[in-house]
Write a structure and sequence with these properties.
The protein has about 350 residues and is an alpha+beta fold. It folds into three domains: about 90 residues, Tetratricopeptide repeat domain (Serine Threonine Protein Phosphatase 5, Tetratricopeptide repeat); about 70 residues, Immunoglobulin-like (Sandwich); about 100 residues. The chain has seven helices and nine strands; from the N terminus they run H-H-H-H-H-E-E-E-E-E-E-E-H-H-E-E. The strands form three sheets. A four-stranded antiparallel beta sheet has the order 3-2-5-6, with no helix packed on it. Strands 4-1-7 form a three-stranded mixed beta sheet. Strands 8-9 form a two-stranded antiparallel ribbon. Strand 8 and strand 9 form a beta hairpin. The protein starts with 8 loop residues before the first helix and ends with a strand.
């Protein structure tokens, strides 16, 4: 005959606790398997010389499950990748988790060996530069105020130090830290304030009882009448045009004369020596002489026209827009009598 199983309260609590432990252990084992797979991939990549990829795999394995052995391997990888500050930090983290004596001695020795070789970056923030709401960044990531004015170990490379504050212009600068033994400082300046343009206030609206303000009349001046060109100045303009045309013709004729003379000398270089192309050379020389004479005449005509234009222009000012006036007065003397006419024209 079977009897029903009856659990005492103490047995029931033990069963519940055991089940909870089993549920907690199962995810931990799965998580450890993922970390182990990443660790093995990182070791393989490191053996193949793919240092940067191996470091990323060790880093991912350590995020899933942090182990002293993983941190030591990560430190070795960072050291091979010339990231001494990151390697030093990984070895120090390993010391906080290590239980094996051999691994503890290895990590401690690495920390002591790397410390003298580290590079340091100091971001100096003076009291004058500490405006309200100041926030600094390093390569786009926030820089904790606890690291201001403090030499912090850092890997070698280029770093962009930037900052911003409400109501102030943004600031940034780039510094290069050597991979080993560098002592670099960056001084944050006082940020420039942003000048805000204030729009002029609108005039208050006038009430219904306010009397309209009469506009002050402005006397308009009659438009100025430009003076008219006189006949002399019109002729002067024509003479100036003729001077320019004659000058251009003189240049053209002069160039043609020089070209014909060069062609004649090319056919017969030595006038004292008989030449088979003497007739053609003489014809070219005559043409060159005629063109040169024409050029001289053109230059002379251009000069004469220019002089004429200048004289006519200066002696013929524009007519005045003012009304003409004429006055007549008698003129008497001991020998004659007559009228004197004066006026402006």
């Amino acid at each position: 005959m079977h009897h029903p199983l009856t659990l005492r309260p103490t047995s029931l609590s033990i069963a519940v606790t055991s089940a909870a432990l089993l549920l907690a252990i199962a995810p931990a084992r799965a998580q450890s398997a993922e970390a182990e797979a990443l660790f093995n991939d990182a070791s393989r990549l490191m053996a193949e010389g793919k240092i940067a990829e191996a470091c990323e795999a060790f880093e991912a394995s350590n995020r899933i499950e942090s182990r002293a052995g993983t941190l030591i391997r990560l430190g070795e990888c960072r050291e091979l990748n010339h990231q001494l500050a990151s390697a030093w930090s990984a070895y120090k983290d390993a010391l906080t988790r290590v239980r094996d004596v051999h691994k503890r001695d290895l990590a401690r020795g690495k920390v002591m060996a790397l410390e003298p070789r580290l590079s340091y970056l100091t971001v100096l923030v003076s009291d004058e530069a500490r405006v309200d709401g100041l926030a600094l960044t390093r390569n786009g990531r926030p820089l904790d105020p606890g690291l201001w004015n403090r030499a912090a170990p850092i890997d070698g490379g280029a770093y962009v130090i930037g900052g911003r504050a409400p109501g102030h212009e943004e600031w940034s600068t780039t510094v290069t830290v050597p991979p080993e033994g560098g002592k670099i400082s960056v001084e944050v300046p006082k940020f420039k304030e942003i000048i805000k343009l204030v729009a002029p206030a609108e005039p208050p609206p006038q009430g219904p009882s306010a009397a309209p303000v009469a506009a002050t009349p402005v006397e308009e001046l009659p438009p100025a009448r430009p003076g008219r060109l006189t006949t002399r100045r019109m002729i002067a303009i024509g003479a100036a045009g003729a001077s320019v045309a004659a000058l251009g013709a003189g240049f053209v004729l002069g160039l043609q004369a020089r070209s014909r003379r060069s062609d004649a000398y090319a056919l017969c270089p030595d006038p004292a020596t008989a030449c088979a192309d003497a007739d053609r050379a003489n014809a070219l020389a005559r043409t060159s002489h005629a063109r040169a004479l024409g050029a001289d005449i053109s230059f002379g005509a251009a000069a004469a026209a220019a002089i004429t234009a200048s004289v006519l222009w200066l002696s013929g000012p524009p007519e005045s827009a003012s009304p003409r006036h004429v006055s007549i007065a008698p003129a008497l003397s001991a020998h004659q009598a007559g009228l004197v006419i004066t006026g402006g024209f």
